[in-house]
Write a structure and sequence with these properties.
alpha/beta, Rossmann fold, two-stranded antiparallel ribbon, about 20% strand
């Protein structure tokens, strides 16, 4: 058993019923077909939300599912860099097609629409929210099994837009071990409860590091509290990701698809059971 994952016997069989009475979601493009939509959220920035989003898409793609990512972090997009993808979308049928990664993952990010990917996006909240909504309504997502939405941190305008406009099936919460983060995670969890969206799992990033000489684990940011939060809210699927210098280097080079470790085994197993 992977020591970073929950035992297979504890992985829940999930049946999703979308909360149509609560959320009056917008229809996708007429040529789109998306089966399951999972939002990756965090209560604060810098905890590795985009990393987890990318790894989930890569893992599910590796299992033979057609996957896609909406980069909803408009002011801080990092998905294109992790996959080493650049360029502009092809337009057709009153919409546009996402760009594809090396292994065929469909991607859409504001970086693909800027004259220069280093240009800052200096927009007010409603304009940012409108852009995210258009990634759902104006992009042609062809026959996607799983779509992952890389959300901006917090519980503001974009989060509300996504949860109200896109038929999200569930969320995965990403956090880190610091004491302060526990409180912020609970805010994100409570928001999803108010929006009537199920929490599928929780990932603690930067949970520990392993000494390369003695293989002893060190909790750099202090002891983990993620199991306590998961138990409090009935979250069955928990993964703990260590620091991994190789993974960081691959992201910097745009080669995350070549990462060969299965650090999110329990989360991927849970998604396949949806």
């Amino acid at each position: 058993m992977n020591e970073n994952s929950t035992p297979n016997s504890e992985i829940p069989k999930i049946t999703i019923k979308r909360a149509k009475p609560v959320r009056d979601t917008d229809p996708p493009h007429a040529l789109s077909k998306v089966r399951k939509i999972v939002a990756i959220i965090s209560g604060k920035g810098g905890v590795g939300k985009s990393l987890v989003t990318s790894l989930l898409a890569v893992n599910m793609n590796g299992h033979g599912y057609k996957t896609a990512i909406i980069d909803a972090d408009i002011t801080g997009p990092s998905i294109p860099r992790a996959f080493g993808v650049s360029g502009q979308p092809e337009t057709a049928e009153n919409g546009m097609y996402p760009l594809k990664s090396k292994t065929g993952i469909d991607l859409m990010s504001i970086n693909f629409l800027l004259p220069d990917e280093t240009d800052p996006v200096i927009w007010r909240g409603p304009v940012i929210s409108g852009a995210v909504k258009q990634f759902w309504t104006d992009v042609i997502w062809e026959n996607e099994d799983y779509m992952f939405i890389d959300m901006p941190p917090g519980t503001g305008d974009v989060a509300l837009t996504v949860f109200q406009s896109i038929p999200v099936d569930g969320v995965i919460v990403v956090t880190s071990p610091q004491e302060l983060v526990s409180m912020i995670v609970e805010k994100a969890v409570k928001m999803t409860e108010k929006m009537n969206i199920p929490i599928l799992g929780i990932v603690e990033n930067m949970s520990y590091t392993v000494c390369p000489h003695c293989n002893e684990k060190f909790s750099v940011f202090g002891e983990s509290h993620i199991d306590e939060i998961a138990e409090k809210y009935g979250i069955k699927t928990v993964c703990k990701l260590p620091f991994d210098q190789k993974l960081a280097a691959l992201c910097d080079r745009g080669e995350i698809e070549s990462f060969d470790k299965d650090n999110l085994h329990a989360m991927v197993k849970m998604l396949r059971n949806m």
